[in-house]
Input
Amino acid sequence: MDQDEQFMRMALAEARTAYADGEIPVGAVITIGSRIISRGHNQVERLSDPTAHAEIIALTSAFNFLGSKYLPEATLYVTVEPCLMCAGALYWSKIGRVVQGAADDKNGYRHVCGQNNPFHPKTALTRDVLAADCAGLMKSFFQGKR
Output
């Protein structure tokens, strides 16, 4: 298993935690090299906060861990394409790389703003890592809600 798949599986574990808590199952981990420095999963319902997305929680934790507002050496692994709010936060973080699982044709940044890469110009983007697993978790969650 390559490193991207390994860390995406860890992000999926975070997404499963969100699922178990009744949250939309999105999970994220941030790494530097081969070390995880932060984790997050959606906590919108738990915190009654529409900004409590997995990416935002992971970013805040990483900033606190490093004592920095920029993450140029870090990689975010996130199970679903970030929304426009999270894409903006990632832009300002100057994160080095974003690795995403499933596309989000309804709320993802590409649907909302039409950009293929709204992140900082130096941010590398990798799409569709374990996309079927990530999408399957989302589909299962929403089927249970219908």
